[in-house]
Structure to design on (271 residues):
């Protein structure tokens, strides 16, 4: 079960891990509105950057000063002050602390890395139980070989383990639909979100123009309606459009459950 913020407090809640993309698109929109998909234009019409911040700025009201005009009076004899009267000492104000200087080699975290860091901070306040099971996969591997040999002799193409596991996940949600639910706040009160469809998110690793890599999560909408062939085609089309930088705002929003495959870097399992 995933956790979502109140959409009234966070207009980016529907984008999940893709919130950083909205900020990136907004900067492109400000520089050249024609450089982003028209679907973003309506979203940015009333968008306010930083609206997801949780901090509240305090407002210091100036203390009004009353100026009383001087009144001339007759000279008065100086008052006699007793030596026993307490003397009020004025404590000088402490100098403000110097600004914190970043150590050499310190850089601000931006983009998807900043979102991951934010999620890690938020996860500290969410009770989490993780279960890991080892399941036999020899039959899965053997059937994949049979399928790919058949495809190579005919129409071509290739089936990956991620295709098979992704489709199995969607089929499993038919028996355990609660795993597609999420938690949200509605007017500050806890609420259970039960989506109408399974919008299956795929974590896609993309290489940027500067050589760096970034991770986006785009989703296959209403994935439960597909048979395996339809799911495979939708999966491949989504990845193809991601490689061509053709993903739209709709692709990034509405994800209800996602699959990440870190096996390419040797990960056995991640928590």
């Amino acid at each position: 079960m995933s956790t979502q913020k109140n959409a009234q407090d966070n207009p980016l809640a529907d984008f999940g891990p893709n919130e950083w993309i909205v900020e990136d698109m907004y900067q492109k929109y400000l520089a050249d509105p024609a450089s982003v998909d028209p679907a973003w234009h309506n979203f940015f019409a009333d968008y306010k950057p930083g609206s997801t911040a949780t901090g509240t700025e305090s407002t210091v009201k100036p203390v009004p000063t009353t100026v009383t005009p001087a009144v001339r009076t007759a000279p008065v004899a100086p008052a006699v002050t007793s030596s026993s009267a307490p003397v009020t000492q004025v404590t000088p104000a402490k100098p403000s602390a110097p600004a914190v200087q970043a150590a050499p080699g310190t850089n601000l975290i931006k983009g998807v890395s900043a979102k991951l860091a934010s999620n890690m901070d938020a996860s500290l306040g969410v009770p989490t139980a993780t279960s890991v099971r080892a399941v036999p996969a020899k039959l899965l591997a053997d059937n994949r070989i049979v399928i790919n040999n058949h495809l190579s002799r005919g129409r071509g193409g290739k089936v990956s383990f991620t295709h098979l596991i992704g489709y199995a996940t969607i089929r499993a949600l038919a028996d355990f639909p609660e795993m597609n639910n999420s938690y949200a706040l509605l007017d500050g009160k806890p609420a259970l979100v039960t989506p109408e469809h399974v919008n299956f998110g795929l974590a896609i690793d993309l290489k940027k123009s500067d050589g760096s890599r970034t991770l986006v999560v785009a989703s296959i909408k209403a994935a439960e309606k597909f048979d395996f062939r339809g799911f495979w085609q939708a999966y491949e089309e989504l990845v193809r459009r991601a490689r061509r930088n053709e993903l739209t705002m709709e692709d990034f929003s509405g994800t209800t459950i996602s699959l990440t495959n870190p096996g390419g870097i040797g990960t056995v399992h991640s928590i």
